[in-house]
Amino acid sequence: VILTVGLGGLAVAILVGFFLAERMLRPIRIAWQRQLEFVSDASHELRTPLAVIQSNLGIVMEHTDESVIENLEWLNNAHGESRRLSKLVQDLLTLARSDSERMPIEQETVNLKNLVEHVHELYETIAEMKGITLAVHAPENVEIIGDRDRLHQLLVILLDNAMKFTEAGERVEIKLNTNKNLAVLTVEDTGLGIAKENIPRVFDRFFTVDPSRSREHTQKGTGLGLSIARWIVDAHRGRIALYSEGLGHGTTVKVELPIGAPHPSQDKST
Ligand code: ADP
């Protein structure tokens, strides 16, 4: 009887052990699965511009008797795709580093009003060239503790998107306000908007809506901008949300960042 009870106890202990090990390993398995998907999606995304570059340069090489002017279209395509490739590699590196928490987040005092005005200046010429009204509404100084370069990158991502999906005669506005202990940054455009069913997916890595929707075919995005934006906001303990009343009704991205509250320190090794 003692032997039976002992064996029974052992069997239960082994089963419980397996169960616990399985539960402990599950997050690791999910993280590993996510990494595999990321690498596979990234490889796929890297292949597309490379294929375009190769085929366009191939055409140029078949027409060596023609002048550069006659080959300009192919060279232009290859050049455009090589720029996209370089942005893609940069974005992938940022996300891979943020995943492994090897991306340092500085904790410095950042004047958001100055930052907004600086980014506004960067985009003024582009807006003028495109015939878009670019406005800023930042009535007061707002300071937070954060990483100036990353917050600059965040604004650039949001402005890039707003300008990309907005046409001549339309409007983009950057607003900076406060709400209790939060700095509230919004980038609002009257452009193309996003279909309701796609909104929940815009922060997913590699998600882009059919590029033919954006009338600037050459500017096909990487689908990583908003994923990086969300990571930057998370690293500052903030919140980001995107709103659109649907296609043709413009888009608003709202970012809330705690004022003054330092975020948890991160591993600074790069
Ligand atoms: P991308 O590099 O393609 O811009 P993002 O992650 O920044 O990647 O955005 C994902 C998708 O969300 C875009 O492809 C676009 O379809 C949609 N999107 C983002 N911002 C806007 C906007 N301001 N207006 C319309 N669509 C937008």
From TrEMBL:
It comes from the Bacteria. Coiled coil: none annotated. The chain crosses the membrane at residues 1-21. The keyword Nucleotide-binding applies. Its EC number is 2.7.13.3. It catalyses: ATP + protein L-histidine = ADP + protein N-phospho-L-histidine. This is histidine kinase. It is found in: Membrane. It comes from Alicyclobacillus fodiniaquatilis. Its main location: membrane. GO terms for molecular function: kinase activity. Residues 41-261 form the Histidine kinase domain. Keywords: ATP-binding, Kinase, Membrane, Nucleotide-binding, Phosphoprotein, Transferase, Transmembrane, Transmembrane helix, Two-component regulatory system.
